[in-house]
Amino acid sequence: MKFSTRTVYGLKAVLALAVRYGEGSLSASQIAKKEGISVAYLEQILHTLKKKGFVKSVRGPQGGYGLVKNPSQTTLLSFFYLLTGKDPFEDYSKVSSLHELHDSAIANFIFWKKFATSIEKTLSEVTLTDLIQEARRLKKGKGSSGLNFHI
């Protein structure tokens, strides 16, 4: 599965803001430097998120961006819908008429529909806070996320 750089960078920025929620804002340049993103591109993404009411901007020397809602109230699915403007999985589970397709094409459709449903369910259950808390547990070496990394 492939997501646009806009979605990937947007998630990085939003998570950076979620980590700082309640502690003040972050400037676009602070986020860009920390996450390795072009400032100009990040500002476009943040502007989109601001227009959609997801982030707010604060002017002045201590200005920057912050999340509008508590990260515990923001699911990953709502973030993906917001940034992409559509269901990120709709292309995988659309078909015009099952009656016109052969069995393997219908089986393929069923696979993608089940895959998309499973991912949507998971994304609807995970909040930004969940990800941050799990990251902190992993960083401290307490608990396991079930993730294994192999090179």
Overview of the molecule:
The protein is mainly alpha-helical and 151 residues long. It has a single domain (5-140), classed as Arc Repressor Mutant, subunit A (Orthogonal Bundle). 54% of the residues lie in helices and 5% in strands. The protein has six helices and two strands, in the order αααββααα. The chain has a two-stranded antiparallel ribbon with strand order 1-2. β1 and β2 (64-67) form a beta hairpin. The mean pLDDT is 85.
What descriptive keywords fit this protein?
single chain, 151 residues, mainly alpha, Arc Repressor Mutant, subunit A, two-stranded antiparallel ribbon, 6 helices, 2 strands, 54% helix, 5% strand
Summarize the structure.
The chain is mostly helical and 151 residues long. Helix content is 54%, strand content 5%.
List the helices and strands and how they pair.
Blueprint lengths: L4 H15 L8 H8 L3 H13 L3 E4 L5 E4 L8 H9 L18 H23 L2 H13 L11
Antiparallel strand pairs: 1-2
Helix pairs in contact: 1-3, 1-4, 1-6, 2-3
Q: Approximately what portion of the residues adopt beta-strand conformation?
A: 5-15%
**CATH 4th-level superfamily:** Winged helix-like DNA-binding domain superfamily/Winged helix DNA-binding domain
Main CATH class: Mainly Alpha
- The low-pLDDT segments are none
CATH architecture: Orthogonal Bundle
Query: Alpha-carbon distance between the termini?
Result: 20 Å
Order of helices and strands: HHHEEHHH
How many domain units?
Answer: 1
